Amino acid sequence: MVVAESRGVVAAAARVGTALPAGWRERLRLSLAVEPDHRLGQCRYGPFRAQPPAAVIEALRTQAPGAPRAAAVLVPICERGGVPCLLLTVRASHLRSHAGQISFPGGRLEGQDSDVAAAALRETQEEIGIAANHVEPLGFLSDHFVRTGYRISPLVAWLRPGFALRAERSEVAEILELPVAHMLEATHYEVRRRTLGGVACELLDLPFGAHRIWGATAGILLELRERILAGAA
Fold it and tell me: First vs last Cα of the chain: how many Å apart?
């Protein structure tokens, strides 16, 4: 890994040379929802290798403390050195929850947020310094439900040139640039086995350099991968 031009920004040392599917950006845009779908029955529940059984979904919902709480993340795509990349954050090690985990910029809705898109944009500026005028929203992925009780709405966006990255050190240890081609390659994923609701399950992690992407972030990447590859020649 090499340090890029902004402190706390980590880029791939060797850019992935795999060509992206023709027309992937337009295909992705057309596949996204104009508005988020907050129905619990339409949520995704993690980076499962196959559709999780009803017992697993019930177990995840039962573990959640109360009614689902709204949260949002931005899934920012940009070109870095001519390579399409996703920007993710490594959470600071001193945080009370999810310390050291890799996530997209985002968080729970606050009183000043008019909707989940506003929350995603606000959190992105606070965490990594990208102002809303550099963000071109493309649309929404499915909501993702996590056992801590949050229903996360991912807003996919293209970043316009000219933005500057600035990691908020109290929350973000590093900013990662994940090449889209790396995320699309099936052989890059590794299986992790767990038992949920008494059922043996297989989940997928995505190693990236010294890091490992798992949990809701890996689930969001897998759905993004599905949409980019759907119908590709």
Answer: 32
